[in-house]
Design brief:
Elements: H1 4-8, E1 19-20, H2 31-43, H3 53-73, E2 81-84, H4 87-98, E3 107-111, H5 120-128, E4 132-136, E5 138-139, E6 144-145, H6 147-153, E7 158-164, H7 176-185, E8 189-193, H8 205-208, E9 212-216, E10 226-230, H9 232-237, H10 261-281, H11 291-317, E11 323-326, E12 340-345, H12 350-359, E13 362-363, E14 365-367, H13 372-377, E15 386-390, H14 397-409
Parallel strand pairs: 1-13, 3-4, 3-7, 7-8, 8-9
Antiparallel strand pairs: 2-10, 5-6, 9-10, 11-12, 12-15, 14-15
Bound molecules: pyridoxal-5'-phosphate.
């Protein structure tokens, strides 16, 4: 069981009293993150690979960050973990290398449910290499991915299947394990955007058997930096765009220039926070658990709590006249969505709703959130898109109720 007040005390910014439903755009950071970054600057700030104390310490911390990130995602090795600026930059970087797998007439499969960061990089290389793009549809009634259309879209010419783990616009969790199976059945690489999933549940790249999986720490209570997981064989085999003097081996060959050391160590702070949460959830009895077990405990508890919150949110929103939720609302299917619930209201511009909420100290995003395919497919792009309520485990039922009260007046 989670004590949400104790949880909230780990997030200094929440003391402001503001209600943060802007989380899919970026979460507040845990105090463990602030401490890691502060300690880094105070004690170990140095560049990589020097023959002196602070450089050794900095390198050791980066190694630890990589090892813990590998365990958190259940990668087979820390060498499969690449750190970078953010998901978009890592994906554009990797797409340039994956383009080497493509010949004119080959095919890339994309979905209408994805954020543009898992669409545009592939459109660009498709154009460069004269490849065809095939699209996976969505079921508009509940905004789920049509996996049958994915099956139809792949062919022996498919080289890349890019799919999201959870939608940043409508909250749907996709069956990426199945998507990877379908991709592999035709010999294609499966590239997964997990930016909006990893803060909400357990991620296990080996069980999913995906080839690449990307996420960003600022969406899971950490600083602004990104992580790319890639199967070692691919990271090793693919040609990286890099300078000649950097290491030819993964993961270093994929990390261009001087890394954001403090950001990478800050990300380790977010993982420290999950360890803290596991200890909290087990009443201080997590010491006997392995690191992976502590992460699994934390993410399981987070997922369970958020399902209750999603349920309260969906049920409450549906009582508001003229409000339509785009996405899963069935209480029995809350495990198929994250707590990102988006809606439109008859005759209301989502931007006006966001401004009205702001006046009451409630922060929420409006628009398309770069999920251009989603708002276009649903026919709401030219109507101002969506109003998105993005809850995470530090949000409370009382915050949901306050939101509903304000929305009723809107
Ligand atoms: C689903 C999804 N993918 C990708 C991104 C882009 O992430 P980044 O800002 O790390 O490039 C976002 C950002 O909101 C997102 O929500």
């Amino acid at each position: 069981m989670l004590n949400i007040e104790t949880i909230r005390s780990q997030f200094p910014a929440l003391a402001s009293g503001a209600i943060h439903f802007d989380n899919p755009g970026g979460t507040q950071v845990a105090q463990q993150v602030i401490k890691r970054i502060q300690d880094y600057y105070l004690h170990t700030n140095a560049n990589h690979g020097g023959e002196f104390h602070t450089s050794h310490q900095s390198d050791a911390l980066i190694d630890q960050a990589r090892e813990h990130a590998a365990t958190w995602l259940n990668a087979a090795s820390p060498k499969e973990i690449v750190f970078g600026l953010n998901m978009t930059t890592l994906t554009l970087h990797m797409s340039r290398s994956l383009a080497h797998l493509l010949k004119p007439g080959d095919e890339i499969v994309l979905t209408h449910l994805d954020h543009d960061a898992n669409v545009a990089p592939w459109l660009l290389i498709a154009k460069d290499r004269e490849c065809t793009v095939k699209w996976v549809d969505i079921h508009p009634e509940d905004c789920t991915l049509d996996l049958e259309s994915l099956e139809r879209a792949v062919s022996p010419r498919t080289k890349i299947v890019a799919v999201g783990y959870a939608s940043n616009a409508v909250g749907t969790i996709n069956d990426v394990k199945r998507a990877a199976q379908i991709a592999h059945s035709v010999g294609a690489v499966c590239y997964v955007d997990a930016v909006q999933y990893v803060a909400h549940g357990i991620t296990d790249v080996q069980a999913l058997d995906v080839d690449f999986l990307v996420c960003s720490a600022y969406k899971f209570f950490g600083p602004h930096m990104g992580i790319l997981y890639g199967k070692y064989d691919l990271l090793d085999r693919l040609t990286a765009y890099k300078v000649r003097t950097s290491s030819p081996l993964p993961p270093d060959k994929w990390e261009t220039g001087t890394p954001n050391f403090e950001g990478n160590v800050g990300m380790l702070g977010a993982l420290d926070y999950f360890e803290w949460l596991a200890d909290h959830a087990t009443g201080g009895k997590s010491a006997s658990l392995s690191l992976r077990e502590r992460y699994v405990t934390a993410m399981t508890e987070i997922g369970r709590y958020e399902q209750e919150l999603s349920c309260r949110l969906c049920e409450g929103l549906q009582t508001i006249p003229g409000l339509k939720i785009w996405g899963i609302t069935d209480p029995a299917r809350m495990d198929q969505r994250v707590a990102t619930v988006s809606f439109t209201m008859d005759g209301k511009d989502p931007a006006d709703i966001a401004r009205a909420l702001d006046k009451q100290g409630i922060y929420a995003w409006n628009g398309n959130f770069y999920a251009l395919e989603v708002t276009t497919t649903l026919g709401i792009e030219d109507k101002g898109g969506l109003l998105r309520i993005g809850a995470v485990h530090y949000n409370t039922p009382a915050e949901v109720d306050r939101l509903l009260e304000v929305l009723r007046k809107v």
